[in-house]
Amino acid sequence: MSKNKEYLIKRGSSEYEVIIGLEVHAQVLSKSKLFSDSPTNFGAEPNTQVSLVDAAFPGMLPVINEFCIKQAVKTGIGLNAVINKKSIFDRKNYFYADLPQGYQISQYKDPIVGEGSILLDLPDGEKNVGIERLHLEQDAGKSIHDIDPQNTLVDLNRSGVALMEIVSKPDLRSPEEVNLYIKKLRSIMRYLGTCDGNMQEGSLRADVNVSIRKTGDKKLGTRCEIKNVNSIKFMQMAIEYEANRQADILEEGGSIDQETRLFDTKKNETRSMRSKEDAHDYRYFPDPDLLPLELTEDFISKIKKEIPELPDEKKKRFVDKFKLTPYEANILVSDIETSKYFENVIKNSDVKLATNWITGELFALLNDRNLEMSESPISSKNLSTLINLIKDGTISGKIAKTVFEIMANESKDPKSIIDEKGLKQQSDPKEIEKIVDAVIKENPKNVELFKSGKDKLFGFFVGQVMKKTDGKANPKLVNDILKKKLN
Amino acid sequence: MSDIINLTLSALIDKIKKKELSSQEITNAYIARAEKSKDLNTYITTDFENAIEKAKKFDEKGNFDCKLPGVPLAVKDLFCTNNLKTTAGSKILSNFIPSYESTVTQYLWDEGAILLGKLNCDEFAMGSSNETSFFGNVESPVGKKVVPGGSSGGSASALAAKLTPATIGTDTGGSIRQPASFTGTVGLKPTYGSCSRYGIVAFASSLDQAGPMTQDVSDAALMLDVISKYDTKDSTSVNFKRGDYFKSLSSNIKGKKIGIPKEYRVDGMPKEIESLWQDGITLLKKLGAKIIDISLPHTKYALPAYYIVAPAEASSNLARYDGVKYGYRSEGENLISMYENTRSEGFGDEVKRRIMIGTYVLSSGYYDAYYLKAQKIRRLIKNDFDEVYKSVDAILTPSTPSSAFKIGDKTDDPVSMYLNDIFTVPVNLSGLPAISIPAGKDKNNYPLGLQIIGKAFEEQNLLDISYSMEKELNFKNNLQDWWIK
Amino acid sequence: MSIDLKTIKHIAKLSRISIDDKKAKELEKDLNSIFEFIEALNKVDTKKVDPLTSIAETSLKLRGDEVKTKNIREQILKNSPDENKDFFVVPKVVE
Ligand SMILES: [Mg+2]
Ligand SMILES: [Zn+2]
What we know:
- The complex is a heterotrimer.
- Chain A folds into three domains: 3-304, no CATH class; 309-421, no CATH class; 429-486, Arc Repressor Mutant, subunit A.
- The radius of gyration of chain A is 30 Å and the shape is elongated.
- Helices cover 39% and strands 20% of the residues of chain A.
- By secondary structure, chain A is an alpha+beta fold.
- Chain C is built from three helices and one strand; from the N terminus they run H-H-H-E.
- Chain C has helices at residues 5-14, 21-38, 73-77; one strand at 88-91.
- Strand 9 (151-155) of chain A pairs antiparallel with strand 1 of chain C, so a sheet runs across the interface.
- Bound molecules: magnesium ion (MG) and zinc ion.
């Protein structure tokens, strides 16, 4: 068992451990909604993606989307979780402007997916985080408070969109672990194609449950739930703030109220949502418009066959087969697009070089331009060609960087860039010998000094040769010939 | 003209097909009579102009091979009708115009029927006397100031008064059968899952079922042929093999085993109901059926269980009426007061009472004691039926524990009102089909009905038994048209 | 067991129905008489009974992932009490 770098809140002589559990709401990737046939497009004009069912017109009834069920089961398998053959849809009753039915169809006692786990790679080892459950439910609409000064406006475009609520066990212990957990969960779902994980568009949000306890205590403290946080950074900030707030209260001899809180991103603090507290009785009961969902073994095993290689397996394979370090493998598998790119590059070229070029130059480029791997200006095919040109000595590593830069701007293939710009490496020993001779001839003084023991001057000669060849001379040959001539 | 309104649905269809009557003649006859019958208050919304227009079109180029060729029909105002106001008898929907059509009404129009208008009903189908409607009481043609029963009271009254040749209602706890019994008409509640609930304003989803209300049993079979179809828009719709009910009707019930449940002999049941039941038993024997005494031991718990299950579902189903998307809205200084004022003003007392009951039985701390308990009782009630159906084909009971009463007689005491449905409710809880047929009259000359309960999905059997009884009973309402102006 | 006024008011709040004191008293009377009648259920031993939630003798049917309803905003909004052609409108909500 590796011991993690501990995240502790210190108050005087006391040390508090922070206990975190997450309820992640992940939007299911599907064309139509969970119980209706309207579209799920993001960013559409208000109330244009709404069916009579989504707006809860009288007499409208829910009919479940089979694909959403498959997506949930798939995700469950990806989380190494138990798939429940029988699950039940319940109504969660409460009134809200953006909840047209006056209830949300969710799963309460019998979710579609039971216990599972997610493996995190911490700097000092691995950690398993337990998954409590995954259930399917409807998203609500959106209340807009800042368009009309007098009123709240309601857009039901999201109303009825399928969500997977993925509930972790209270196994997380620091904002950093939360960061890794969300990224890993997101990665798994993107591999599976069950959620795009786009946090800006709200495809992934989390309710964060935070409690603290003195180190060594066994009993969990009273927790607060911070609702609907939509970025990892905000989750981390909210946890940091909330843990410290709780520690202050306990230090002063107070006690924590179990409550729902909101993270105010402008003030960087959490505050109580008393409005949601009063009349907090959801009156769950099985939705009488729906029957229990029963999955056959056949249905589940068909989905199992569709599960692709997931990040953990892929990482293991990369380490075992390609001899990558776990660190390198991790970086390459964490995003499905990156792993696809990598695997395309190495189909025909050197693994080590590919690893270095992707995690080095390419990542830097994407980072610089704020691009996703899928938007890379350099195709995997072109990078593969570039790497092969380095490998066979057509160009040097240094020239390769120049070619790479041109590729990034013109998205041409490296061979034509090299031809056009005449960047091909000079690897003819006779040619290089001529240049070396010229350099020696032009610098008699330095030759003298070198021979008298000033070894450092060797670099000067290499530099002179490179200068004369615009950097195109094969460095190895230059080295060899210089050594021979100077000694 | 008076001949037309005295024809049964199947007789009308026959005459249309033979071109002895036109759709326009028939439609005009019913409209003319409706205009003179406004005192019964059966209609909430009429659509007569459109009906005449459609009748004209039908006569010009209608399809005479349809099941309901050019037949004008009025329906309960719980079915959403495209472009025609649908209120569910409530103020909260008093201005609601759907942009869609319920599945079952669509089936009617697909078979050539023409909509006359929307019939009064108890608010959200909650009531047994049509006295909870926002649009006022309905009078029964069987007697002045007499209730037609409920919740399909407007439908029953309109049918008995011959303002529509047939109609459809909905039955959650007896809302088709009890008013049929009170008005001397036939009311059939099909097996749960037979008729789509899509587009019907929901009361209690696990109990609601649409069904025909007709002048006789063959008309009920004919209507059932039209409205009983599998529908993918309703997740509780059942895809079973439906019969050709009308064509297959048979009056031969020799050897059929009919159960008589002793638990339906309740305290204080009027003698005339008891003798009605006895006469029914005698008749069945005469028709060659075998009478078997049976026991449904949990019968007496059906009504209390129903008054947990139905309000619980209703409290949730009616949460959508919040003044935001459609219907009545009362202003409020904030969202919550807008909700509270809207719902307080928009719903009538009985609806509010049931929402409150439903909210209470689902609320934290009470769920197990009430809701879960009721679901368990529901299982026991269904088990009772499953058990007796091992030895009988159908069950005979009275439809109601009393005949129709006067308007206002039971409005002060909700429980006495609820007791009206004591014989009908177990059927809804078990999802079974049942029919009420007129079988006699009480001392006031008010009709009395007998209920036949069948096995799930065996509507044909139910129809055959009632068809054969009907022939012998030869019931006549003999109404005096006292309400006609 | 009886339902007191405080409970009546709590249920009304949960139900989003405003009631005055007079109405609350009426409801107290009605609900108590209804629940007195409902209490009959306590006589039945249901320890070993499975609750029956769905009477339809069928399994949940699944729909294909197809978009059929496109933009019907006009239909969706035409019955709404407030006149706004893009949104539903409710009194200002402060979170
Ligand atoms: Mg939550
Ligand atoms: Zn949720």
